[in-house]
């Protein structure tokens, strides 16, 4: 598992602004910081992808470069993923994307009752491809598991990456126990625990609501 804030960097500033209960009220800045972390995580994940050598003709001579063989398919779990996903798309600018409409039902009950309503899936073939599942919050892990189960209808991926901003240990555990294929987990920060409503503590609150307003 890769955890971005294990090493100090400018990303700490973006995480700080996302978490701070006053600064996060600036919705534009909140979305922008998610997007910036999406770009940073895309960069980190890119280092793990297969590369091939390509020669280049400059106006003055010849050079060569290593390029990514196949850009990974990006899967965005609506709605909170939209700004974080945009960061990935800024870097993997020519790849295929898929969109999942999922949300946690029964958020006011205790965590065991949380179920995921899976309303919409529009995704390309993922057969033999590397896939990055993108959602800024990894709480119980149920949204990711539901997404993975349904995505297999679109083929067997060569590799699944999970990219999140803040994760709870309970969610990481749930993911590792409930995936038939091993998944590579990339997060910006690992928090303490879930509360009795399955919100991440200390977390940042509700990422979807902070980005777009409270949904009914
Ligand atoms: O790990 P889990 O317990 O499944 O929780 C994480 C999910 O909760 C949030 O979405 P939410 O259901 O609030 O929908 P939203 O994006 O519309 O706000 C978040 O964006 C994840 O999709
Ligand atoms: O803490 C949490 C848990 C799920 N979804 C969020 O937006 N925040
Ligand atoms: Mg939400």
TrEMBL record:
Q: Which cofactor does it need?
A: Mg(2+)
Pfam families with a match to the protein in the record: UPRTase
SUPFAM superfamilies, sorted? PRTase-like (SSF53271)
Instruction: Please indicate if the UniProt record lists Signal as a keyword.
Output: no
Query: What sort of enzyme, by top EC class, is this?
Result: transferase
Q: Name one GO molecular function term.
A: GTP binding
**Could you tell me the keywords of this UniProt record?**
Allosteric enzyme, Glycosyltransferase, GTP-binding, Nucleotide-binding, Transferase
Q: In which pathway does it act?
A: Pyrimidine metabolism; UMP biosynthesis via salvage pathway; UMP from uracil: step 1/1
- Which function does this protein serve? Catalyzes the conversion of uracil and 5-phospho-alpha-D-ribose 1-diphosphate (PRPP) to UMP and diphosphate.
UniProt-recorded name of the protein: Uracil phosphoribosyltransferase
Please name the source species.
Answer: Aquiflexum balticum DSM 16537
